[in-house]
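Model the whole thing, not chain by chain.
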Amino acid sequence: MEEKILTKDFGVKNLFEIEVYLKQGGYKAVEKALTRMKPAEILEEVKKANLRGRGGAGFPAGVKWGFVPQNVGRPKYLCVNADEGEPGTFKDRYIMTHNPHLLIEGIIITSYCVGIHQAFIYIRGEYEAIAQRLERGIGEAGKKGYLGSNILGSGFDLDIVVHRGAGAYICGEETALLESLEGKRGHPRLKPPFPASVGLFQCPTVINNVETLANVPFIILHGAEWFVSRGLPKDGGTRIFGVSGMVKKPGIYELPLGTSLKRIIFDLAGGMKDGKKLKAVIPGGMSAPLLKADEIDIPMDFDSLVQVGSMLGSAAVIVIDEETPILEVLRSVAKFYSHESCGQCTPCRIGTSWVYKIVQRIARGQGEKDDIDTIIRLAENIKGKTLCPMGDAAALPILSICRKFRDELEACLAG
Amino acid sequence: MAKFFIDDRAVEVKEGTTILRAAEEVGIPIPHFCYHPAFAPEGSCRMCLVEIEGLPKLELACSTVVREGMKVHTKSPRVIEARQAVLEFLLAEHPLDCPICDKAGECKLQDYFEAYGLFESQFKEVKERRDKKVPISKNLILDRERCILCTRCVRFLDEITATRDAGVLHRGIHSEIGIYESEFIDNNYAGNLAELCPVGAITDTDFRFKTRTWFLEKKASICPLCSRGCNILIDWLPGFPRIPTTQRVFRIRARENPDVNKFWICDFGRYGYRYLDEDRQEKILLKKGGKDTELSWEKARLYLVEKIKSLLFMKKRSRLAVILHTWLTNEELFLAHKIFRQGLGLENIYIVDPPAGKGDGFLLTEERTPNSRGAREIGFSAVPLDLESLATTTDILLLFGSFLESRFSLADIQRAFDRIRTKVLLTPHKSGLDGLVDIVIPTLLVAEKEGSLTNVAGRVQTFTPALDNGGGLPEWKILLELAKELRVNYKYFWQLDSPLAVRREMAREIPFFK
Amino acid sequence: MARYPKKEAALLPILHLVQREKGWISPAEERFIASLMGIKPMKVREVATFYTMILRRPPAKYHLQVCSNLTCSLLGAGTLIEYLKEKLGIAPGETTPDGKFSLTTVECLGACEQAPCLMVNFDYHGNLDKEKIDKLIASLE
């Protein structure tokens, strides 16, 4: 049985209350980091641990923190990306519901390392109950002296603000998150400049996913080598896989990076529900191109999935069965991206809506014979040409569905 | 300086220049919608994507800064494909309004489609329907179906006028531009929005449905309605054979000048062009004994010269008075000064201008004439005009312009004029003064002349005729011929035959005009 | 507003607060927020219309937001939406005449392991079937 790191204590009753959390050994990592380690040491450790971002992009956290310029005369900020909008993803909800103090610890250590004195948790508006739980935890931590001024006598100050989103997937994209936090429409920004140098209110900003930060306390307590050994040499640690769809046991599964997708579906998640047959799997949230049933014998790590033209993304595994028409899958995908397009740039604003209109027409039984070619052409025209990565997030899944299930889609056409 | 390669040409530009600007400098146009030199790069239209060797994705020319050794391709197959992709997307949701859209002929979407597109539409779906006639200011109408969401209008109102009237509402394909409820955009620069909009989404009711852009000649001129001297383009209709035209000038647009008006003109200047066509004097008229006789210029000149010569002969030159104004060009004022002040030694030279208005803190000045600075530099000073004293000391009055009517009542003017033996009116416009003078000579407006004006900041701007003259005479010509006929310093004046020649003299004599 | 480095950042939290109290953001609320924050009402409206959760029409007492994204669709969200339409007599986007229920379809709520699921105001309900929906509707007074 694989050792659990993040979810180890999830079964402990009332873990979200600080007294219970402390009894489980909580806040020891903060104590070690703030009183016995220097920020540069922490940065080295996190870099060596090869902790890659768990939000979707997989960028090494230590490297990202290293980009932040010190001594610029402007405050630095940390934004915790708790927007969790990627369809199929619910792992951060579990972390924040069951173990909010773990996240708070991660925030404190990260802020101390980079020299940040105000952190914002950007949490999606729908997670209202969780936002309240976080605020409660922050209050408790403050009372115990883990937040506020001169934490544990280290001279380090930190304040955490919980900021609710209001129903926009695009605000999970880091620059759109910054815009939304600044009180504007969630329009992604041009990069460069990157948030590490020009971020929130033009100040250097680090943006990390909830799960990424939740790993930091363990790296501090047990060291980088230990962390790497729990995963793969280039991808340290575990991932919380969120399995949903047509499986017997949907839910979260914390597993080392490199675990086989086949095993996750058929072994751990109990296999197909109601005796259905597997048709396709989305391995990393809707933005990850899907895999056919014969492509699932693959280790779940960043590089392996990139090699087959997909991505680990948010490690959200969506299992699709044979009885589901692929057109329905295509419709969900096209609908989602056209609804969530921010509208700023031409290809995504018009392209996602155009694709959705075609798919709707096919679903009404009015598909024509060049429609699939048109969809592919439009997706290729969106890919690589948009202002933010959501263009690719829309185009690549659509392309994978049209190319891998072309015959089934063609059969839906009338003309 | 950074050296880079664009379409295999080596080019050197200042550090920090973007690819798009650098390309413009060497005459390589890169198509764009949302970019405008007045604002920071926006990067949302995606039309300016270019290929940079060594980079996997196409990059934006409007925001990517040139780096030493960079190799850029603006016409590679990938780039052309990308442009077609953007055009296809825009046209998919764009209404087929060209036949009824005012922007036709100067529309970027049309221009780029012609240059890079020319493909058949593959869009079989139902286009988004939106409001097509949303008034957003007194003169402007927004058509949301035509809008390509370049947000130039929003950024103009945010960054240039700082009035923040417009914004982008909703999300995704439902995004649209709007104003708040019915709170109209209400500043002196709203008219720029119709020019700024790259397509026909914002149209000006002043121009809407009146003509087609390809029927119009566009000529450069200077706006004379205040002393800023904004550079303008006059769009006017030369007309068609056998079809009478009811209107000559249809539109004024801004002409870029980084030192004077940048990219903009104010609404006061933009919409105030009717003076070019309305109430124009048509013929030289001698008004005697209740009858109007048309004269040729030669005859009129003879009449004037005779009258003035007889006054000079009787050693009564001081009884010749001249009223000028500062719509006159530098050359004309210089000639007037040379002839009347220096040449004839006259004392009674006045300047009567239209009353001042309110400045708007940006372009529009309080002074409502284009050349009062020029008049000052040439040596005229503001002498208040008293009609009574004018009446008693004057036998011959040369009155340039009809601005007297805006300063005094006609009754007062008539009372004074009745005591002046000969009154000559040289003006482009008809007015109530016509019935009070002896001879009316039609003159030309700035847009119809050649010359130069000095703006409020002391900048001398030259211009050439933008419109054909309607049979009037430019004041510089009248003054030169008068000088020659009156033998006022003949040797000096005989060799001057054009405003350019006069300007050379000005540069020689007055340090300011060097 | 004081919790943020720049007061404009408080716009979204303020919109949430006002909506909690008044139920929705009307033009009057837009003007109120604008004057409170010292920004233009246009700015408030720009932001309010961008976010799905900010309501611009009076809501019902119980706002049923049914996820219609991929996993929930796989597990029968479509059927449940039809069932709700029949049961309440309204289509997505509409409110019942008595003002008690409104129905909208939304994108992924982040509870895919309990698909199909819906959110009533801010409360999540998952693993739905017709029975559970009947129970839920009955329990909402």
